[in-house]
Amino acid sequence: MTPEEEIADLKKKIQEQSEIIDYLTKRLFGQKSEKINTDQTSLFDEDNSVFSQPEQTG
């Protein structure tokens, strides 16, 4: 193998590894697609039946 062929081979391997790193980085740290279950009640829904009056302290 000539030095030029070896350099070309190493550049190809670097490119492939860079693509793998980019893919894995996006999988690990990329935007997540979180699904919301519409049947589940929200913690922030206004429910006036509970805690409708402030608690008297002191």
Structure annotation, total helices? 1
Helices and strands, in N-to-C order?
H
User: Which percent range fits the helix content?
Assistant: 40-55%
Distance between the termini: 87 Å
Q: What is the beta-strand fraction?
A: under 5%
Shape label:
rod-shaped
Low-confidence stretches: none
In this structure, how is the largest beta sheet organized?
Answer: none
The whole-angstrom Rg is 28 Å
Structural class: mainly alpha
Q: How many beta-strand segments?
A: 0
Average pLDDT, rounded to a whole number, is: 83
Question: What would your notes on this structure say?
Answer:
This protein is an all-alpha fold and 58 residues long. Helix content is 47%, strand content 0%. It contains one helix and no strands. The longest helix is centred in the N-terminal third of the chain and has 27 residues, at 3-29. The chain is rod-shaped. 0% of the residues are buried. The mean pLDDT is 83.
